[in-house]
Design goal:
Pfam families: YtzH. The protein is an all-alpha fold and 92 residues long. The chain contains five helices and no strands. It has one domain.
């Protein structure tokens, strides 16, 4: 049974918040971000502004999966993580 759009956004926000707070994460979390974003982008009710934010998060997660030092990657994106969490809060 698929999870609702609201639950997907909440999960996305939780993972991003953890990355922001802890300054660390795992490849599996980045892969989960990718799956969530792909699913949300397929939803026709997502507006264009939200899609732009989701595409940025997707790029961040792809880069994280391929990063040699994931924690450094997360630290370099602290400002974006904060911004994305705030943006998602507006959609939830």
């Amino acid at each position: 049974m698929p999870i609702s759009q609201q639950d997907q956004l909440n999960l996305l926000k939780d993972i991003l918040s953890n990355h922001q707070t802890d300054c660390c994460g795992s490849v599996s979390e980045c892969e989960q971000l990718e799956r969530l974003v792909k699913s949300l982008l397929m939803n026709p009710t997502i507006d264009s502004q939200a899609k732009a934010v989701l595409e940025e998060i997707y790029y961040y997660s792809q880069s994280g999966v391929n990063a040699t030092h994931l924690d450094n990657h997360i630290e370099l994106h602290q400002n974006e993580l904060s911004s994305w969490v705030n943006d998602i809060n507006q959609y939830t």
